[in-house]
Description:
Layout: H1 3-12, E1 21-25, H2 29-32, E2 44-47, H3 64-67, E3 83-89, H4 95-108, E4 112-115, H5 129-137, E5 143-146, E6 149-152
Parallel strand pairs: 1-3
Antiparallel strand pairs: 1-4, 2-3, 5-6
Amino acid sequence: PEMQKKINLKIKFRESFRPFAPAVLEEHSGEWFAGSRRSPYMMFTFPLAAGRRVVVEDRGKFGLEKLNLARSAVPAITHVDYSARIQTVSPIDNPKFYELIKEFYELTGIPMVVNTSFNVRGEPIVCSPHDAYRCFRRTDIDYLILGNFLIAKEDLPQFSNTLRQNEYALD
């Protein structure tokens, strides 16, 4: 339940209420999202299936009080209107990512993971291993997977956590 806020504040450096998109196993997307269809590029938004919603009492609440209410078992990807912009993942399109989500599903019963662009607020999306490593070191991300390599931040020496805030204008 805290993942949305954690990623926004410690990794993306943006407002805590912004939801994320789910990367969902293609064969399970219809169980979670009404009317869903293949969407490997996050092109479509679908409502959360009625049976997956948590009805919340938000009358009398305003602003962040209203936005931060958990509206489903997957609150980090559930918008205030119960919608989500999904990415379906199949073993044909992306076999490694598919296997990762499938393993998560086997451990948790949730066939999706949080999906977001790999960048921090105000910076372009990473486009090289060097960019990925630099972004990883300057955020509170715990692990970085580059190809077949797993890098754990706890195994690395201290690093200056200075962001390139003067290089890119914030949005």
